[in-house]
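Summary for the steering committee. One of the milestones for this cycle was to obtain a three-dimensional model of the protein with manganese (II) ion bound, which we needed before selecting residues for the alanine scan. The sequence and ligand used are listed below.
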Amino acid sequence: MTPTPYLWTPPPVYSLPVRGMAERLPVNRLFFVGRNYHAHAVEMGRPVDKANERPFYFTKAASTLVESGATVAYPPETSNFHHEMELVVAIGAPGFRVSESDTPALIYGYACGLDMTRRDLQLVARDKGRPWDLGKDVEQSSVVSEIVPMRGRVLDQGELVLTVNGQPRQKSDLSMLIWNLRELIADLSKFYHLQPGDLIFTGTPEGVGAVVAGDRIAGHIYGVGEITLTVGAAE
Ligand code: MN
């Protein structure tokens, strides 16, 4: 077959290593859940009333993906670059308008994730009613560990911890999620035809904070694994 001629080299297939597998997981879309731990919602000044609200989402381009262990440049146009430690769900089967009881069949596995954020720009956008993209869709801001295959398994508990230079910053448990994994996958599938390779960052607990050049971030989620990131100098 003759390869399609392009003016320049097209973007790569973004992918992640999978524990115990030679094959890598090809990444499709990156979905992020907004406020999904009560204590974090409170620290952001926007408490959540689950009885009267639905979860909300934002997305980032797959090109923002970075593997655990990387060093990323401190990003431009911010002076308040924040860490957000999160459980990432890797979708492994298609689903649209999935019932909560059917959501486990969509789960391929899990990873640790960092939703790195230009907090100053996100808050300006939020308060002016503008899109969050400049605060959230930051180059090299979607950091993910290796994917751990756990087909059909729903994680509903497990400690989640983040340290910066060895100092504790975030500590919570998956049992503290406002919307649990079944609820999130079912709800998101009402808006999108979920596809294999979609990743869902399930929200961060309290303790988000700023990092500076030279900082070393380390996180772990019990039963899933570990993640590290080093913040380099600004370009
Ligand atoms: Mn987040």
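Key point for the committee: The chain has a mean pLDDT of 97.
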